[in-house]
Design a protein that fits this description.
homodimer, 400 residues, alpha+beta, 60s Ribosomal Protein L30, Chain: A, 7-stranded mixed beta sheet, 12 helices, 14 strands, globular
Chain lengths: 400, 400
């Protein structure tokens, strides 16, 4: 049993798939989100989608960082970290919806469960303000998201700190959907980098996004958090699973990118807000729609996520993934996880896959790079008797 | 500071109102849910609503009951209790939407956060199956709710047991909205009972719904739960606030209604699923629309909820509320809460208010009774210099 399972998390979510197996699968079995007929307005040429997701346990990291970063003489820490959590809860929805081709005129409602004794009103305010600020920024790229309010419940006996979730609703024309049904042998896969600094980000993004954070938190942070912040974990976990790493969130680490040295706090890397690809994918969908055979967001399941959406008779070969950025190297070094597990849990530097014709790849890459989002052909789709995935990196070959 | 506040809950949710004060209030300031223009389809005669709510800490009671009711020789308890929680999460949304006049063609998405080490797959399955079964039952009354899927996250470091939330989306014609703007002096208030057994329920409903359950759980259940089920509460609470009551969930209690003796488990009373008024309100909206001046769901805030929605220049007099059913008497006896606090936190037997003309009250009452839902004129709207609420019961007068 992996550390990941012992901590009560599962990248493959077998339980959830079993529990939902009898639910309506929607109109397109391979689409990244479930797509239903247009029940809201009854137009046969349109569809409806409702999608829910959240910041997961990343909110715990925000809480720890906020508690630890209190300047002396003050009573509260840096509230801006909660704006990043707001962005996480939104982008985990938005970037899933991008994968079915939806990028505009979305409705968003938030669901926040908090322990009022631990999370004061000012934190709620930062999350709500942060949500609105993110929507304002997206609007400037033509990605319109309407904030419809939501529910905030005080449920301290259920929630140790805070759970920040959101739900999006969309109505969209059928002719503009991406259903992943066009993915076929011969396609190449353009990968968009999860890290770096895009033209619409104000600082370096570590690429961590909002998946695998239970593992990352325990594997990277040191034992001092275990006694000092009991609200931050399931206290019935074996002590050997809890905060087993070398770092403090407020500690600086050095790293180099292209021979340039950087220094940043561990907490900043872990709490880097989930990058949205919405400005990039919007332009791709508007100007290169026919080239796009499929879109896959490497969220839960990491680089193996594609196996749920590609046809049965293909082998996916990923032999040119991005070099994993520093945060994933730190996690792997601290957790001693093998490459197989790392690629199953984390995006490892590549977070959006665009399946396309070989001849169209360059144009797609150029659009992405024009937004400062690194992109390259990371792999291709081959004919195969059974569905499989091969990740090749240096001398390493991992089959899934 | 009340017990209620010390436990980190607030019936008035002052924090939340402060945090959301700058958000768009929608088209109608007094409407029970926020109502927005029809962004989804752009029709000026239609509107959009998105609404989020959940079962709150009632899920903890389900977990305790499920754990305690394991038959000897078996490994798991009665899973059906989880279907009631599914209904709670849905009805807390549905009955709020009824109050703006919406009762059909709804989209529902669930958001479930669980501790995988405490909540197994079979519980998720019961919740999801229970949701679908409730939708099937509503469909037979012409209340169509489409289950769009949702998100289930394994976040054991955030959630001790399970949080069951849901979000609904509706598109609705403006001409069929209830906005509470017609509430005026001279109106009478028809109250619908939260308890009893309607024609669409299979057993007695205690009337508890899904509000005030943190208090009710701690005030009613005895200290044995404190050591045996540490997953069921915030262990940093003062011991004097935790499970201070006389009962066990599996214990039978006797009570009489109209001189008939009944016997049931305490757990059954506390876990009675939130009754929906959808079949009743649908018929009222379809056949008595012009008589309905306002609709208020006495959820969080109990009998004082109306103060948020009535005009400024009225006094609401409630002098004929239903006799509180047994569950609220048990809670008050155990908690020693005064009547003022009880009416602020719980529905106390009356859970839906219909503001109407005096002459139309009988017709409305008859519709409700035809579904086996008790109804009566519980009060009226008087002119007043300042907005206030008077609850009169026997010799008691409470002003809010």
């Amino acid at each position: 049993m992996s550390l990941y399972s012992k901590r009560g998390v599962s990248a493959q979510k077998e339980d959830v798939h079993a529990a939902t197996k009898n639910l309506d699968k929607g109109l397109y079995p391979k689409s990244f989100c479930k797509i239903y007929p247009d029940m809201l307005a009854g137009d046969p040429d349109w569809v409806n989608v409702m999608h829910a997701d959240g910041a997961g346990t990343k909110s715990i990291l925000a809480w720890l960082y906020w508690r630890e970063s209190v300047p002396s003489g003050k009573e509260t820490g840096d509230l801006s970290i909660w704006k990043a959590i707001a962005q996480d809860a939104i982008v985990m929805n938005l970037d899933d919806l991008l994968c079915v081709g939806i990028y505009d005129n979305l409705l968003f409602s938030s669901t926040i469960d908090r322990n009022k004794r631990v999370i004061p009103a000012e934190v709620l305010e930062a999350i709500i303000t942060g949500s609105q600020e993110f929507f304002d920024k997206m609007k400037s790229f033509g990605v319109n998201i309407h904030y419809m309010g939501g529910e905030t419940a005080d449920v301290g006996d259920v929630v140790r700190t805070i759970a920040v979730n959101g739900t999006m609703t969309a109505r969209w024309p059928k002719s503009k959907l991406i259903t992943n049904e066009k993915i076929k042998k011969g396609d190449v896969i353009v990968g968009l980098a999860s890290y770096g600094q895009s033209t619409y980000e104000t600082e370096y993004n570590s690429g961590i996004a909002s998946n695998g954070l239970t593992s990352a938190r325990h594997d990277l942070l040191n034992k001092s958090y275990s006694s000092k912040f009991q609200e931050s974990y399931d206290t019935s976990l074996d002590d050997e699973l809890v905060y087993t790493g070398p770092y403090k969130l407020t500690e600086n680490i050095q790293y180099s990118i292209f021979n340039t040295q950087y220094s940043t706090k561990v907490g900043k890397l872990l709490l880097s807000p989930t990058r949205t690809f919405a400005p990039v994918v919007k332009e791709l969908l508007e100007n290169h729609f026919d080239s796009i055979h499929g879109l896959i967001h490497c969220s839960g399941g990491g680089q193996t996520k594609c196996l749920k959406y590609v046809p049965d008779n293909v082998r996916i070969i990923k032999d040119n993934l991005f070099e994993p950025p520093i945060i994933f190297k730190m996690i792997q070094e601290a957790s001693k996880a093998d490459d197989r597990e790392m690629y199953q849990v984390f995006n490892m530097g590549t977070r959006m896959e665009i399946y396309t014709n070989e001849k169209d790849a360059d144009a797609i890459i150029n659009v992405s790079k024009s937004f400062g989002v690194d992109a390259q052909v990371i792999g291709r789709v081959k004919e195969s008797e059974k569905k499989e995935l091969l990740i090749k990196r240096n001398a390493l070959e991992i089959f899934f």
